[in-house]
Design goal:
This protein is an alpha/beta fold. The protein is 32% helix and 25% strand. A 6-stranded mixed sheet has the order 5-2-1-9-21-20. A hairpin with a 4-residue loop joins strand 6 (84-88) and strand 7 (93-96). Helix 2 (19-27) runs parallel beside helix 10. The longest helix is centred in the middle third of the chain and has 20 residues, at 133-152. It is globular and about 70 Å long. It starts with a helix and ends in a 13-residue tail after the last helix.
Length: 422
C-alpha cells in the first residue's frame, strides 16, 4: 500500500492494552483504519486472576501475553510501548512522557484505574495494592518472606507480627486475597516449616462497611463471611483503618503489630480526565456522553475504569472486565458507522452477565440476578468462566492444569521468592 494511501486513512489511537482497549482494536479488524495501540507495558494482563499470581497458585506468564505477539497478524495495528502524559484536544495530538507527539483523528482512552488511599498516599509504601504484575510479585514476596522470617525468629511479639497478615477492603479482590492467604497458612505450608506452625498465622480482613462483598445480595455476603471465617480468617467489619506504617496498623484506638498489610479498599481512575479537562466524578472517572464520547469532543472516547457510565436503571456500571469489553466493542461499532456514513448505533447499554467471587478451596459465590449459587458449584462455575475468557488454548490448558494440581495435592507451584531490582 502506498505511503500516501496510509496517511489518508483514518488514524485511531487507542491508549491502554487492557480489556477495553484490546477489545476495541480486535473489533475493528478489517475496518480500514490506521490503528496505534499504546501501553506503558508490553503485555495484556488478565487482571481477574492477578491475585492468584500474588498468592502462589499461578505464575505471571499464565495470565499475561505480549501485545505485539497478540497483534502480529494485524498489519493495520502499530503497537507502541510508551506512556502518555497529556492530550492536546485542540490539535488532536497525544503527548508522550518523552515529549513526542502523535496525531489522531479518533482517540480511545482505556487507561484503567490506580489505587486510592483516600488521601493517605504515604500508606502505599507499607500496604501495596494489586493492579500489575509488579504488584503481584511484590505481594507474593511479602507473603512468603513473612513465613521465612518467622521461621528464624524466637517465640514472641516479633514472630507474631511476622505471622500477622491484614487485608484492607472486603470487595472481591480483598476477599479472594485473604482466602488464599488463609489456605496457604492453614493447609498448604504447615509441613514445609520446622520451627513454626504456620497455622498460628493471624489472617485478618478489615472492612469499613458493615459486611463483606457488599455488592452481592445479603444472603451471598453472609455465606462469604461464614466461608472465610471457617478458613480461619478474622473478619473485622464496620472498622476503618486510621494509620498504617512499617510496624503495623491502627484500627480506631487499637494498634496491631503486623508485618504484611495489603490494600484492596479503593481505586482511583487514571489521570485521563485531567488530560482532557473533562468533568469527572469523585473517583476521577470521566462523565461521558451516551455513546461513550467526551462531551464537546465527539472524536474522543473514554471506556473501562476511566469512564463514569450508568446502566438503563441509573446504576453505575461496575469496573469489571466484561463491562470494559462491551464498551470497547461499542466504540468500534460507532467508528465503523461513522466511516461508512451510517447512523450511529444506539447509546451504550451494559448487559450484566453476573458477578462471581471465589473465597478459597471449593468456596465461591455467584450472582446471576434471580439465580444465586454458593459453595462448590459456584466455585466450578467461577473456574470454568475464567478459563473460558483466558486468551489462547495454551493458557487455558496451563491454568486448568495448575488449578487441578493445586486442588488435588494441596500444593501451589509458584512459590519462588524473587528479589526486586537493585
Amino acid at each position: 500500500m502506498a505511503e500516501t494511501e496510509i496517511r489518508d486513512r483514518h488514524r485511531l489511537v487507542v491508549v491502554g492494552g487492557g480489556f477495553g482497549g484490546l477489545q476495541c482494536v480486535k473489533s475493528l479488524r478489517g475496518a480500514g483504519l490506521d490503528i496505534t495501540l499504546i501501553d506503558r507495558r508490553n503485555h495484556h494482563l488478565f487482571q481477574p486472576l492477578l491475585y492468584q499470581a500474588a498468592t502462589t497458585i499461578l505464575s505471571p506468564a499464565e495470565i499475561a501475553w505480549p501485545l505485539r505477539q497478540m497483534l502480529r497478524g494485524r498489519e493495520d495495528v502499530t503497537t507502541l510501548m510508551a506512556e502518555v502524559s497529556d492530550v492536546d484536544v485542540t490539535v488532536r495530538e497525544i503527548v508522550l512522557t518523552d515529549g513526542a507527539r502523535l496525531g489522531y483523528d479518533s482517540l480511545v482512552l482505556a487507561t484503567g484505574a490506580r489505587h486510592s488511599y483516600f488521601g493517605n498516599d504515604t500508606w502505599a509504601d507499607h500496604a501495596p495494592g494489586l493492579k500489575t504484575l509488579e504488584d503481584a510479585t511484590r505481594i507474593r514476596r511479602m507473603i512468603l518472606t513473612a513465613f521465612e522470617r518467622a521461621e528464624r525468629l524466637p517465640e514472641g511479639e516479633a514472630r507474631r507480627a511476622a505471622l500477622t497478615f491484614a487485608v484492607i477492603g472486603a470487595g472481591p479482590t480483598g476477599a479472594e486475597l485473604v482466602g488464599i492467604i488463609a489456605e496457604l497458612a492453614h493447609r498448604i505450608l504447615p509441613r514445609d516449616f520446622r520451627r513454626i506452625d504456620t497455622r498460628d498465622a493471624r489472617v485478618m480482613l478489615i472492612e469499613a462497611g458493615d459486611r463483606v462483598l457488599s455488592a452481592f445480595p445479603d444472603t451471598l455476603s453472609d455465606y462469604a463471611a461464614g466461608a472465610l471465617a471457617a478458613q480461619g480468617v478474622e473478619l473485622r467489619t464496620g472498622m476503618a483503618v486510621t494509620a498504617i506504617d512499617e510496624t503495623g496498623i491502627t484500627i480506631g484506638a487499637e494498634r496491631i503489630a503486623c508485618d504484611t498489610v495489603l490494600w484492596a479498599a479503593g481505586v482511583q481512575a487514571s489521570r485521563a480526565g485531567g488530560w482532557l479537562g473533562a468533568e469527572v466524578d469523585r473517583a476521577g472517572r470521566v462523565h461521558v456522553a451516551p455513546d461513550l464520547s467526551v462531551p464537546g469532543h465527539p472524536e474522543v472516547f473514554v471506556i473501562g475504569d476511566t469512564a463514569a457510565v450508568s446502566d438503563a436503571a441509573g446504576t453505575p456500571v461496575p469496573g469489571i472486565a466484561p463491562a470494559a469489553k462491551q464498551m470497547g466493542a461499542h466504540v468500534a461499532k460507532i467508528l465503523q458507522a461513522r466511516l461508512r456514513g451510517n447512523d450511529a448505533p444506539d447509546p451504550f447499554r451494559y448487559a450484566h452477565a453476573g458477578s462471581l467471587a471465589t473465597l478459597g478451596r471449593s468456596a465461591a459465590i455467584a450472582d446471576f440476578g434471580r439465580l444465586h449459587l454458593r459453595g462448590a458449584l459456584a466455585w466450578w462455575v467461577w473456574g470454568i468462566a475464567h478459563i473460558f475468557f483466558l486468551i489462547g488454548n495454551r493458557s487455558r490448558i496451563s491454568v486448568a492444569l495448575s488449578w487441578l494440581w493445586s486442588y488435588a495435592i494441596r500444593k501451589n507451584a509458584a512459590r519462588l521468592i524473587t528479589r526486586p531490582d537493585r
